[in-house]
Amino acid sequence: MDRTRYRFRSLWTLPAPPAAVFGALERVEDYPSWWRQVREVRRSDGTTGVIRIRSLLPYDLTFTAHQARRDPAAGVLEATMSGDLDGWARWTLTARGAGTLARYDQEVDVRKPLLRRFAVPGRPIFRLNHRLMMRAGRRGLAAYLEAV
Predict the structure, then answer these.
(1) Is residue 142 over pLDDT 70?
(2) Whole-prediction pTM value?
(3) 19: domain CATH number?
């Protein structure tokens, strides 16, 4: 097992229809306004940007995200990542009652030297850090969607 490879899945129930959630999620440059762990997004062009994140642990992760798939009809947004994280992430949105079930899947290799050095003893803490970041993101997006 490669200790620097991670697979994550998060499920978010959100109080808005899929089209509204899709609209919010595709505007990556707005993430810092509702997701406090997304510290900075710098767009390079319409499909690429540099993202800097930081959760509970005292380190930043910076990576370039490039849109790989944008399919509003299917409710799918997917990006490839390179930098401190190499891999991909995908949002899949489905209607759930009057709201949306947002499924987030991510598979990455960690390239940041500090995290690679502590890959074995730090793995449970790194996974917890990600879980806390995703929980805060769900809360932030839900509040954002309720306000608009």
Answers:
(1) yes
(2) 0.95
(3) 3.30.530.20
